[in-house]
Amino acid sequence: MHEPDLVIENIGELVSPPFIHGPHRGHDMGRLTRINDGAIACVGGRIVACGEQSEVSKQIKKTDKTKTVSAKGKLVTPGLIDPHTHLVFSGNRAAEFLMRCQGKTYAEIAKAGGGIVASTTATRQATSDELEELGLKRLSMMLQYGTTSAEAKTGYGLSHESELMMLETILKLHQNQPLELTPTFMPAHAVPKEMKKAEYVDVIIRDMLPAAAELLRKYGWLDSQKAYSDVFCDEGYFTLDDTRRIFERSAELGMSLRVHADEFVSLGAVRLACDLGASSVDHLLAIKQEDIRCLSESNTVAVLLPGTSFFLNLEKHAPARILIDEGACVALGSDFNPGSCHIFSLPMIFGLACMKLKMTAEEALTAMTANAAYAIGRGEDIGRLYSGYQADIIIWDLGALEEIPYKMVWNPILRVFKKGVEV
Ligand code: NIG
Ligand code: FE
What we know:
Blueprint: E1 6-16, E2 33-43, E3 46-52, H1 53-59, E4 67-70, E5 75-78, E6 80-82, H2 94-101, H3 106-111, H4 116-125, H5 128-144, E7 147-153, H6 160-176, E8 180-188, H7 197-218, E9 228-233, H8 240-252, E10 256-261, H9 269-275, E11 280-283, H10 289-296, E12 301-304, H11 306-311, H12 320-325, E13 329-332, H13 346-356, H14 361-367, H15 370-375, E14 393-396, H16 403-406, E15 413-418, E16 421-422
Parallel strand pairs: 1-4, 1-5, 6-7, 7-8, 8-9, 9-10, 10-11, 11-12, 12-13
Antiparallel strand pairs: 1-2, 2-3, 5-14, 14-15, 15-16
Helix pairs in contact: 5-6, 6-7, 7-8
């Protein structure tokens, strides 16, 4: 008999990816556990019983320490997980958005001095306290939209000091508020104005990666919790060879790998990432057929970011249907950043995934819960409603899963529980 500290009952529909070892692949992404009249019991921030209310009540004994919450017949799912954000930056690029509305492309704007480098200028001028405050504000909004864990990248510092300050900001933000962050070091996001690319890549490999690994260890990462290294491998940014060199060094230092691949042009990063056992390959608008096959045979998760195509006003989207039909493990993320996608709402991304990527509601839920958890190295701990999993749970102001895409521009989240505590 469990003596729960939290019981969520009167759940109209309890929906979760089922427990399996590893991420959900291909058509299995559409197979969810769906239970009417459900309940969840938690002890110390972990789920101890979950399923039909009549069954759960047989496994628990409520005490005076038990907090009972009625879901009032609403939809309950795992907390949403965002496996791709550029959370920390200063300034905004609203003018670029309007330039794109008038027909300029992302590449043209970047060439004319906008893009990532413009956000770098603003971010370098901010103090670490200012960056932390901006991050806190964004994280509290993300929680309100149902995100309970997220990945967060550096990449707007582009110098030794500034990139390490961004990384430390992410590590502090993880400690100072409830939404858990998985840190990613990404100095290879763009080449800073003051340096040639070859020189910058050398500095990344020689100085920045070892300093990042040291800082991560100081905050308790890398030994038991995964932290990441990421590269923007695309035309005008970093080559396949740059990416390989950065990744080999990162792996030596104990960092796990993820990559911005095939966003505009395919340079071969997907194959490299699969060969090196990367946790995820992200974007994939320009992915080639042979790379889809190699991805489908690996456990590397394809993180698709439909908000970015939408925000960049592109017709083209990642080939989600082909990836799923071929048996890949697909996740969804926001790509929240100041330039190419200023959207953090995962319910909105859910709607875009159904509309633009032709994903089903079942697939989209798996993609932003269990598979997103595997994309950040935490699939055995978060992303499912299952005994032993962390009690990250959301109650939606909806009756059924199918209403999520329909309500995409509302905030359809009623209550959010993180580690068994309402936030
Ligand atoms: O994921 N592709 C590279 N990085 C971001 C864009 C960041 C920016 O424009 O500031 C992305 O889309
Ligand atoms: Fe990105």
